[in-house]
Give the backbone structure.
Amino acid sequence: MSYPVRSYAAHSPTGRLGLFEFERRSARDTDVVIEIDYCGVCHSDLHNVRNDWGNAEYPMVPGHEIIGRVIATGSAVSRFKAGDRVGVGCMVDSCQHCASCGKGWEQYCENGASYTYNGIDKVDGSRTHGGYCEKIVVSQDFVLKVPETLDPAAAAPLLCAGITTWSPLRHWKVGPGSRVAIVGLGGLGHMGLKLAKALGAEVTLLSRSPGKEADARRLGADHIVISTDEAQMAAVAGRFDLIIDTVPYEHDVNPYVPTLAVGGTLVMVGYLGPLDAFNTAPLVFARKALAGSLIGGIAETQEMLDFCGEHGITSEVEVIRIQDINEAYERLLKADVKYRFVIDMASLKD
Amino acid sequence: MSYPVRSYAAHSPTGRLGLFEFERRSARDTDVVIEIDYCGVCHSDLHNVRNDWGNAEYPMVPGHEIIGRVIATGSAVSRFKAGDRVGVGCMVDSCQHCASCGKGWEQYCENGASYTYNGIDKVDGSRTHGGYCEKIVVSQDFVLKVPETLDPAAAAPLLCAGITTWSPLRHWKVGPGSRVAIVGLGGLGHMGLKLAKALGAEVTLLSRSPGKEADARRLGADHIVISTDEAQMAAVAGRFDLIIDTVPYEHDVNPYVPTLAVGGTLVMVGYLGPLDAFNTAPLVFARKALAGSLIGGIAETQEMLDFCGEHGITSEVEVIRIQDINEAYERLLKADVKYRFVIDMASLKD
């Protein structure tokens, strides 16, 4: 039994979304069928639908911050049952046998993870479609349990914005005594503040523009440093063990490096592309590193969701109707959202 | 009792060296007085005497790969006695109380280590002078014990070229099962091959030019990859846990990043300066890092010397007379040395 579904899709690189009806596959033995309640709007959705990365195929149904409930399961599914509150993030499959998968790093699968949309189904070779949709059918190995105590709309961004900041915080062993800086206060940045604070770190927001102090403090920042103010930056020289740079466009990262402590790491999670004249000298003189990090593995994502359940952490969201998605994309381009749009998928029925 | 000494010094940014006589200070209570037998010629000597880094003061006596024998000790020196075979590397002092010094990372001293030459003595504020000289007077905390079994001329480069490659090998936990690549086959690179191999790693030389195969294999390389050959580079995609890039001038490091394994690190030890259009995307997609590393701490340097003693590892050197130093610098600029010039300091008496 396949599932006819309504969705919103981009049909061309204009990136404008409109109604799209298609059939979700029937559940394989190990699949979970999910009725989608909410789907977050990630900045990468915009990059994808506008073909900024050159790999778009249309029609494309975006969305990889998916929250829903199980409505059916394949015969071999043991971990989920109808009615469970679940989530799906950026991946729906990986090879499961390479070294990365063996370490629980499915996001770095050496044979290529299958992305939730604009990807390829490993079984039948079809295109994957994401969460701006009524239903999704996903292998149980890539379905996450979402604590019932969390507001489901506000929990949706945990599946991408949350895990993208959680993974480097955990990989670089942030905890009490750590000094962490977050660059940028958007969808990723505001989750970085919340998660770093909940892990016990001393947390600083590095922001180009003033006026974010009250919000940043409410979200978990102990300090706010205006990164265009040389005196403020000099005052935090050598301070941070980890800087998570969430800015999703090209920018000069050189000014951040001197604020790293000896042995510290600046990890890029938002921007993919060339840096202009990145200077190696400050790396050499204090064994610093410039690193990158991509979402997180499945076990790590479950760990993050459980942690958020225990600590009552969700994203700050503005819930929209699917019919308002094109306007939301325009506002996203202007960073006019605090801090994540989430689509109420019930609106698809309107 | 101060020590009148002959040395070779640069007197101007022409970088040409000539005889220079001055007085070494008398030994403080914790100082060791060393008669210098050999001093290696590091590529950074050339940068320094030509003021490439903008901080040169003249006259400047270069040299920080110093091997000699103790001839006198201050009253509070307990670890050394006259006749001991000793070495001095790139540092002669550090604050000894910052977090970095506390971890044995004197090279990253937060208050600034005192470099062996073109530096400042922390006690009296005088300029430091290096190893192209008859004698040097150094705090016992910065004097290394050199195994008597090692050839002293060939051991000199261990004090900089050796420790500069050893420190990242140890910091990034290279051992049996590790896959290490060395970029560049010069003074640093040839030590990287030897030390990585002795630590049990599978070792690859990444070289821009062919013709180095026999030498590289003799020095410890299991494989040689011509880095300008796209097919050869594609064949080692995702292979290396650690790449040590020893190239001392600006070059494109982007082609090396895809050869890193997931989670791998490319560590720069030779070049200080801006990289043109360094691409962050491959870092993000496989949690890779671009890092830097500077020489090594004192305890780590002693560990390296002891390891070299046990394994019979020294540098490949061409021993020269001090009177030939200007010609050696010209040859160094053309990479015309296998693999390190070492000055026989007895020639100063000629």
